[in-house]
């Protein structure tokens, strides 16, 4: 009838909302692989933030200082520009004042040709009506102008001749300077060639002396090496190692003892003594056989020896035959084992093929993203 919301319902709804928010935060923390596996180092992050702020502040201060320097430079440039403009204006005014005070129009050389006040300054001349503008002094003025032109032409010719003479003098002086420089360059080149020749001769003499010294040194070294080799050979030939003296093998403890490192074998007397003893033993054994044993016993001994040799030959043949039989038997066993192994591998391959065919027929559904999305939906 009426939807009445109780206090307990509001409390339960708030509690449920808090649990949902905590679950959402927990899922965000757990399902975030970077936070879960690496974690967040708050102190390091704060230090990085502080370092970045300090770096930005330092860059801002540097930019402000650069801007202030730029403003100061601009102001200085403006002041210098204004000062230059002021100096130019003052110089232009001084030039104008100099021209006005010391270079007036009437002081020019050609002012009389274009003097507008010349007619005004002449005495008034009565002119007849209708003859306005007649100049009675035109012939004299024309002569003066011709004389002035002649003087100017002469002056120009003189100046031109003087300039040509000066140019010829300068060209002559230039040619003399070029010749002097060439002569000096030739002298310097000769001096340099002589210096190089002297240096080459000195280097050649030094190289020859050095080569002779090295050759003499090598000759002396070769002589010394040859002398050392001859001395070494003589020492080896005359030393105890290659000598046949039996005395050096005798120990210092007495005659019966020998030195193993210097022993050169037995002496002739010792070898002869050993040979005599051996011959004596042979003679004694032969005499004892001839005197003590009859002919029949010797024949028996020879027969036994022959039987022993035959027995040994038979044993060798039997051993070789047995080894050959064992080798053939081992080859047959290995062949049988190989055949058994091949059959087993064939059976295993067939079983694997059948199992794969069965699995392909049974497992026909391939999992997609919807299958994997049902996992890890809760943090509990």
From TrEMBL:
Main subcellular location: cytoplasm
Pfam families cross-referenced by the UniProt entry: RIB43A (PF05914)
Entries under InterPro entries matching the protein: RIB43A
Record keywords: Cell projection, Cilium, Coiled coil, Cytoplasm, Cytoskeleton, Flagellum
Subcellular location(s) of the protein: Cytoplasm, Cytoskeleton, Flagellum axoneme
Family assignment from sequence similarity: Belongs to the RIB43A family.
Oligomer status and interactors: Microtubule inner protein component of sperm flagellar doublet microtubules.
Protein name: RIB43A-like with coiled-coils protein 2
Organism of provenance: Coregonus suidteri
